[in-house]
């Protein structure tokens, strides 16, 4: 977690954070009005691939960049509301989780850089993208439901499916094309290249707990609405019920 | 100022306020909107915001997002009235049932959303990005983060121009990116992403050197681009906004402005 704080001392990382934010916002803005799935909250986002692939190249700079980029998209799109704060946290996790879990998923990890040259690398990439999309979807939908804007089940499923689908389809070819160039220009974050620097042999346990947090939050939040006849969604019920999962997600993210 | 900026370059009472006072007032209006879920109370807030729109001359910006505002209201109102089942049954359409309290709550949520988007739009119409960043810095945002935020704002328009150049270059070579339906057009644009990303990645090194040559990061408190000194009126607006927000929370705690006992 220290790297996301100390990165601000490095001028190159500050520039990379700004670059990620600007690129993410520049791709998000035109689609805000083209295909809005849930007006003001989510739309068809080809830009969703950017936090994942930039995270695997630029590390913590991409985490801050995705958070800032989403906020800039809200500012230019005219949808700056308190829900933007949950968008900030959710998109931070979306750019933070990929580089943190890469190479730390036990038997799912191939132990190489994310150059996307083999089937195993693609599998690891897909799991990475799914975890990032899941964490982003759960946190944003939880916050937005708590504020009374959009029901949890609608937003969480849309964000999960669209973010994962876009990252899964566009990510591998883009990463295969960009990673070698980023490495040649010495823009790749050290955690992506040096597996030896990764501490903790049992980090896969934290990744597993992260998955448990995402899956439980998603399941509980959806159960509140799909079983609405039996479970009363009134009051702060959903917010309280999903809160332990959110805490688990944030805790695992901090420990990674 | 970026060409994508929502800032309305006209002198108004609101644009003349200190950006910190505007930020506090916007937060306060967000709190007021969050405090109530009864449509009548939110209607009063919306009327006040309509006055702010006129006073800040941000009507052209509101007009730009009028379809979004309508969609927001309709979408929120329909979703909540279908997913919540509170109060007596009003309407039954096959498996769908609409209850009275849920419908009222749903309309309230639509109005809350519209009110928040309008508040954000008034703030952005009356505040330059540089002023926004200044206010964030004064409220404790670390300098490098504030710098990255403002740099990203400027880079968005630059990247859009690069995208347009790359698109034209590909069209000259025979790529018809605007052919077909919407999904086909989106697919046509995907190959353009790589040159755009490569171009922006190439600029990182030169930008880093330029910043370091100018002493970026040498001091923890660099000189700000703009300096705004608060006046008595700014303090009055900030204090009045905080009082308004506190009063709204207090009213809600006393049971006013509530259709359902949820946020």
Give a topology summary.
The complex is a heterodimer of chains A (256) and B (263).
Chain A: H1 2-6, H2 11-34, E1 36-38, E2 42-43, H3 49-58, H4 60-77, H5 83-101, H6 119-146, H7 152-184, H8 190-193, H9 203-226, H10 237-255
Antiparallel strand pairs in A: 1-2
Chain B: H1 19-35, H2 39-55, H3 59-64, H4 66-83, E1 89-93, E2 96-99, H5 100-126, H6 129-138, H7 143-172, H8 182-189, H9 193-213, H10 232-253
Antiparallel strand pairs in B: 1-2
Helix pairs in contact in B: 1-5, 1-10, 2-5, 4-5, 6-7, 7-9
Helix content of chain A: over 70%
- The CATH architecture of chain A comes to Orthogonal Bundle
Q: Low-confidence segments of chain A, ≥5 residues, pLDDT <50? A: none
- Low-confidence segments of chain B, ≥5 residues, pLDDT <50? none
Q: What proportion of the residues of chain A form beta strands (DSSP E)?
A: under 5%
Order of helices and strands of chain B: HHHHEEHHHHHH
Question: Quaternary status of these chains?
Answer: heterodimer
General form of chain A: globular
- The N- and C-terminal alpha carbons of chain B lie at a distance of 38 Å
CATH topology of chain A: Arp2/3 complex 21 kDa subunit ARPC3
Question: What is the SS-derived class of chain A?
Answer: mainly alpha
Q: Measured on Cα atoms, how large is the radius of gyration of chain B?
A: 23 Å
Spatial extent as radius of gyration of chain A: 17 Å
Shape of chain B: flat
Task: Give me the side-by-side strand order of the main sheet of chain B.
Answer: 1-2
Mean pLDDT of chain B comes to: 85
Mean pLDDT of chain A: 84
The level 1 CATH classification of chain A is Mainly Alpha
Structural class of chain B: mainly alpha
- Main sheet of chain B? 2 strands, antiparallel
């Amino acid at each position: 977690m220290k790297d996301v704080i100390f990165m601000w001392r490095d001028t190159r990382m500050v520039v990379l954070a700004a670059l990620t934010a600007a690129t993410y916002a520049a791709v998000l803005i035109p689609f805000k009005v083209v295909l809005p799935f849930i007006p003001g909250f989510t739309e068809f986002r080809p830009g969703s691939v950017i936090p994942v692939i930039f995270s695997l190249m630029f590390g913590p700079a991409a985490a801050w960049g995705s958070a800032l980029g989403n906020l800039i998209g809200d500012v230019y799109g005219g949808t700056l509301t308190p829900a933007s704060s949950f968008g900030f946290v959710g998109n931070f996790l979306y750019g933070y989780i990929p580089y943190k879990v890469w190479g730390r998923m036990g038997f799912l990890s191939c132990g190489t850089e994310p150059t996307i040259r083999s089937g195993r690398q693609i599998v690891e990439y897909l799991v990475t993208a799914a975890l990032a999309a899941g964490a982003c979807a759960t946190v944003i939908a939880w916050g937005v439901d708590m504020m009374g804007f959009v029901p949890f089940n609608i937003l969480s499923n849309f964000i999960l499916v669209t973010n994962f689908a876009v990252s899964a389809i566009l990510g591998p070819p883009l990463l295969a094309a960009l990673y070698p160039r980023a490495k040649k220009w010495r823009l790749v974050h050290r955690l992506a290249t040096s597996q030896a620097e990764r501490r903790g042999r049992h980090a896969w346990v934290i990744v597993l707990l992260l998955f448990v947090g995402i899956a439980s939050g998603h399941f509980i939040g959806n159960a509140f609405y799909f079983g609405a006849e039996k479970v009363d969604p009134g009051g702060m019920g959903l917010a309280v019920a999903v809160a332990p999962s959110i805490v688990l997600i944030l805790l695992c993210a901090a420990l990674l | 100022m970026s060409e994508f900026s929502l800032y309305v370059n006209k002198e108004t009472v609101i644009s003349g306020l200190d950006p910190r006072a505007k930020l506090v007032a916007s937060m306060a209006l967000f709190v007021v909107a969050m405090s109530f879920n009864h449509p009548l109370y939110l209607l009063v807030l919306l009327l006040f915001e309509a006055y702010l729109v006129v006073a800040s001359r941000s009507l052209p910006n509101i007009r730009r997002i009028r379809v979004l505002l309508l969609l927001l209201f309709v979408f929120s109102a329909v979703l909540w009235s279908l997913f919540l089942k509170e109060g007596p049954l009003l309407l039954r359409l096959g498996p769908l049932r609409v209850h009275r309290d849920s419908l009222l709550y749903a309309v309230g949520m639509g109005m809350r959303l519209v009110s928040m988007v309008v508040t954000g739009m008034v703030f952005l119409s009356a505040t330059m990005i540089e002023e926004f960043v200044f206010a964030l810095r004064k409220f404790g945002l670390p300098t490098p983060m504030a710098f990255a935020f403002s740099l990203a704002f400027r880079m968005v328009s630059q990247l859009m121009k690069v995208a347009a150049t790359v698109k034209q270059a590909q069209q000259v070579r025979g790529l018809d990116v605007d052919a077909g339906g919407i999904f086909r057009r989106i697919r046509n644009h995907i190959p353009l992403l790589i040159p755009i990303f490569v171009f922006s990645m190439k600029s990182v090194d030169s930008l880093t050197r330029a910043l370091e040559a100018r002493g970026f990061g040498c001091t923890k408190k660099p000189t700000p681009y703009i300096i705004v000194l608060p006046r008595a009126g700014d303090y009055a607006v900030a204090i009045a906004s905080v009082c308004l927000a506190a009063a709204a929370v207090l009213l809600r705690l006393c049971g006013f402005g509530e259709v359902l006992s949820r946020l």
